[in-house]
């Protein structure tokens, strides 16, 4: 259940600066800089750039309004938006880690995040990957572990971690925890309430929701966001524009109703896939856990529409044949938009073993009946 508090936050009227008599949509501050009345005032504001509108590589009122809403949705003190999810991730890893630090990645992690971690080796940052969805991380922590970075649910196998246990373990060792919360959105999971320190989102997915904007965000304590602002944000320069922020704000208005529909459609699709003999496994919290499992009831307020499944006899030709036979589900990367999408990590050369044999569906808003018909049509095509 999405709370009324969160619905209210998504609907918040514009509270930013400027004279906007009755404007229902947040004004787009399409300006690179903000001139000041005196030099003294300029100097004062520039000395605390994260609090003042000085230059749009730093802060901008349209972007700041979005940041305020995202921080409130995640129950964090502050947020910073970025030009992409990867911009947010590179700011967190590159801006907060030092040479000699070690990062522990837990669960299935977004591929480019691990590629970035590999790149950071040249700056003296080490990492290990624990691909299982386990909160039992104690034995994998090192003397120099500075960050535990997780995805839960992940976005390939959708496995869920016990975030409360994981965050408490890391905290006992004085280690910062970071989660990529993109699958659940802030409406369905609030990691900060479970003890996690830093939340990352790709706004490109459900929060934007219309497949027309790329963006990212980081939410955490005011101190952490300030530290991030002056290092990973201002210096790396992965800046969200006012125009993009207005697209994401429009997405937020309908996020609660969209997530409810994605959930309803995904549940109907999963219930149908369960009855298909060609499907050997389905990966999604609704399929993996009983509805009353504490891991689900205590962490997730609902389900999103990204799932994967495995075909019987998962050869490349069968998977490509199935994907090509779909018509409603379009072939492409990304997910979380209004439209249904399909992809698979399988490649012609790879061995037909999970997880390479997965088919991943982003169940859109077209309606479960249409989606199920399309899937049945594709099953018939590979018979
Ligand atoms: C898409 C995605 C990202 C990266 O976001 P971009 O906006 O594409 O840079 C990060 N994490 C997850 C889980 C994603 O799905």
UniProtKB/TrEMBL annotation:
Domain of life: Bacteria
PROSITE patterns: CYS_MET_METAB_PP
Region of interest (Disordered), ranges: 1-20
Pfam families: Cys_Met_Meta_PP
Keyword annotations from UniProtKB, A to Z: Pyridoxal phosphate
Cofactor list: pyridoxal 5'-phosphate
PANTHER family from the UniProt entry: CYSTATHIONINE GAMMA-LYASE (PTHR11808:SF80), TRANS-SULFURATION ENZYME FAMILY MEMBER (PTHR11808)
Family assignment from sequence similarity: Belongs to the trans-sulfuration enzymes family.
Protein name: Trans-sulfuration enzyme family protein
Organism, scientific name: Georgenia deserti
């Amino acid at each position: 259940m999405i709370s009324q508090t969160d619905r209210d936050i998504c609907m918040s009227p514009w509270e930013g600066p400027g004279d906007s008599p009755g404007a229902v949509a947040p004004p787009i501050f399409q300006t690179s800089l903000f001139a000041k009345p005196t030099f003294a005032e300029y100097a004062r504001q520039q000395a605390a750039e994260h609090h003042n509108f000085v230059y749009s590589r730093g802060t901008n009122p349209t972007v700041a309004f979005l940041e305020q809403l995202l921080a409130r949705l995640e129950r964090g003190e502050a947020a910073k938006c970025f030009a992409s999810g990867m911009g947010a991730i590179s700011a967190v890893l590159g801006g907060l880690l030092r040479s000699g630090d070690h990062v522990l990645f837990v669960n299935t992690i977004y591929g480019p995040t691990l590629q970035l971690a590999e790149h950071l080796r040249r700056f003296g940052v080490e990492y290990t990957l624990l691909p299982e969805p386990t909160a039992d991380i104690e034995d994998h922590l090192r003397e120099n572990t500075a960050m535990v970075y997780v995805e839960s649910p992940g976005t390939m196998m959708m496995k869920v971690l016990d975030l409360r246990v994981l965050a408490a373990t890391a905290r006992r060792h004085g280690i910062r925890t970071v989660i990529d919360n993109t699958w659940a959105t802030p409406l369905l999971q609030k990691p900060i309430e479970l003890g996690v320190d830093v939340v990352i989102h790709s706004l490109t997915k459900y929060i934007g929701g219309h497949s027309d904007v790329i963006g990212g965000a980081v939410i955490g304590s005011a101190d952490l966001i300030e530290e991030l602002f002056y290092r990973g944000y201002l210096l790396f320069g992965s800046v969200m524009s006012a125009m993009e922020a207005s697209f994401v704000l429009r997405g937020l208005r309908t996020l609660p109703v969209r997530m409810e529909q994605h959930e309803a459609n995904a549940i109907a699709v999963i219930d149908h896939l369960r009855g298909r003999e060609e499907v050997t496994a389905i990966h999604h919290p609704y399929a993996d856990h009983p509805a009353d499992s504490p891991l689900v009831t205590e962490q997730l307020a609902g389900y999103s529409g990204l799932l994967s499944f495995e075909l019987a006899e998962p050869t490349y030709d069968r998977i490509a044949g199935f994907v090509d036979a779909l018509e409603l589900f379009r072939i492409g990367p990304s997910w979380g938009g209004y439209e249904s999408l399909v992809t698979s990590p399988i490649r012609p050369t790879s061995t037909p073993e999970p997880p390479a044999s997965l088919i991943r569906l982003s169940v859109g808003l077209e309606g479960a009946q249409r989606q199920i018909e399309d899937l049945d049509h594709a099953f018939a095509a590979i018979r």
